[in-house]
Amino acid sequence: MEATTKKVAATEQSNDYEFSAVPQDKRKSYFSLTIVWTGYVFVITSMMIGGGLAAGLNFLDIILVTILGNVFLGVIATLVSIISSKHGLSFALITKYSFGTNGSRIASFFVPAVNLGWYIIQAATYGHFLALIFGFGDVGEAICMVLSAIAMGIFAFCGMRAITILGYVSIPAIVFLSLATAIRAGQIAGGWEGIMAFVPSAPITIGAGVTAVIGTWILSASTCIADIMRYARSTKEAVASALTGLLLGNSLMVICGAVAAIAVNDSDLTNVLLTMGLLIPSIILMTTNIFTTNAANLYSNSLNFSNSFHMERKKMIVIILVIAAALTLFKPYKIDFLFSFLDTLGNVVPPLPGILIADYFIVKKQVFPSLETYEFRKWNPAAFLTWAVALALSFVLPGLPAIISLVSSIILFPIFELLFHRKKA
Predict the structure, then answer these.
(1) What does the radius of gyration of the chain's CA atoms come to, in whole angstroms?
(2) CA angle 282, 284, 285 (to 5 degrees)
(3) What are phi and psi of 28, to 5 degrees?
(4) Which residues of the chain have pLDDT under 50?
């Protein structure tokens, strides 16, 4: 009991609330939330996805898949934001209600483990970018990637306040430079007519394009967003902030990346920026873009891992940074690796938010018992069975796997929960 009291006291002192709800008097405004969330969404990887889409789709189809993908993400983000903002709970704490105390360790371990892949990809991309600019060889590139992974962790180590300040500084530069890059690319491509006349070299289907866009942010829109929106003063402000970041921010990044790739006929964004002669702007864009996202990414990871291992958040960050720095040496910035990673995310992750959404809105009727007094189950087999069956259905049923697995999990969880509850009774 004494150890628990000390842990809660330490958490409250650090204002990170790893193991408790965010108090109402610590909540933040729509503007502050949007700065953090949009800074998270404004990531160079989204521009890389735009470049990858340009290799397989014409410009109008790119716009279509971007809209469809972000609308899908927006629906999930809205529902998760309502849950987290209403109760002030992080994603890790929400999973306790659906998966049980021991089960939530697996769910909250899976998410940051996959999210760590994002962190590593972006840190490696930034290190690779610096190495190209300054003409470093393989050893120099390796050093740049390792130092990038470590440097981006400083803001996450300092907490939400540091991430917010970083967002205030970075977002105006990101918006300006992203638009400037797209405008410059349009000029190189021969204006609007040149962009519209573009023919992709390796055509892909609309479904594959939508899946790639969904895969870009499915993990964050369904899990990490809870760690930000739990600070919202109201559900209305949380939903507005979530949709601003996805429908405006992420769409802007994808389309700007696509236009830039079309202009120089290259899907590697690093090569695109350097080919366009935008040396200084590209350094600023890459730095602000990746740092804002990876700082929030690592912050969310530390909260989830803290739940899994019952370790203080800052200690957890140090361990994560050592692992991330080492894994950047495998050069995960390559576009083929990235698309394979996104395809996997687009299939595996959607059942997880589907379970949380079904549990809260259907099973528990939008009411969570008190975190401090509720007697949680240790395991909930209904949740894990739902995850497995929904994932399997995404591979056998026709249509978009992400939508199939999400909808399936929302339908199946209440059924399995009822069956297991009756069996137990």
Answers:
(1) 21
(2) 60
(3) -120, 165
(4) 1-13, 425
